[in-house]
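Hi R.,

Here are the chain sequences for the assembly we discussed:
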Amino acid sequence: MIYLTITIVLGIIILIMAFIALYHRNLKVAILAAGVVSLFASIVYLLLDAPDVALTEAAIGSGLTTVIFFYVLNKIQRNDAEK
Amino acid sequence: MLRNSLYLVILAAFAVITFALVRNWQPAESLSPIAEHYATNGPAEVGAANLVTAVVVTYRGFDTLGEVTILFVTAAIIGFFLSLFHTESPEESSWLAPTSEICSTASKLLIPFMLVLGAYVFINGHLTPGGGFQGGAIIASAFVLMLLANPKSKLNHRIIALVESVSGVAFVFIGLLGIFLAGGFLDNRIINLGTFGMLISAGVIPLLYVFIGLKVGSELTNIIGHLQQTQKNR
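And here is the predicted structure of the full complex:
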């Protein structure tokens, strides 16, 4: 029962964060929100007894992808500033 | 207005389709026949305590080869397009602001542990959750931390490419050995299965996962390295 409650709360947080990631004006906040979506999704996977998927999601989804997005954002903004 | 009503129509159609699916849904009482086979015969046939690994590396090893190939192609394409903008001159990358004391000090402490954790995750892939992809991603995160803490450091792309291609070739070679020495491509029973649950067990799965881990780690590190080298102040 407690797992169900935690999962539902996490699901609501994921939805809110996904909404922020889509609609926030500041792209840095949006990228961080997308990372938080992955982080909480990995906890949900863990609660759903899928530790392998949780490990992948935590390492790639919230770790590497966020960093790659920041690198690309920095690159795009510098290219825009040039024009 | 027309556009919004179109969205509504599409949503309504989607709801109708999903409603039929949901109404007929019944919880599965038992495993499907193929999952039943994996669950009952997996430990005896493959010898891996982690059944997910047994499926990913042995029963569906060909899919894993495909995934590794996709990742390789992605890394190669990103590397190709980013190397068009490469800057080699040191003064162009000297604009990078120094990182905080906390980040650089913590990175010195954490990077060895992260590398060891990554190696642990892929070597123990047949016993505990995790495996080549996860371990490789953790190793790549260690290099990301190194680049974040010390932006002027450069990765040696030659060594990365060497590790990546050697482990890729070794992965396919062990898979081909399975055809001649065991039941088929990527069969893990080339060597003795060993004791169930020990570190050296489950045939060649630990060896395969070491190669997959090194390959994934070097590919992801390569992508990050290319991205980091093309960050410049024009």
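Chain B has one domain: 48-229. Chain B has a mean pLDDT of 82.

Let me know if anything looks off.

Best,
T.
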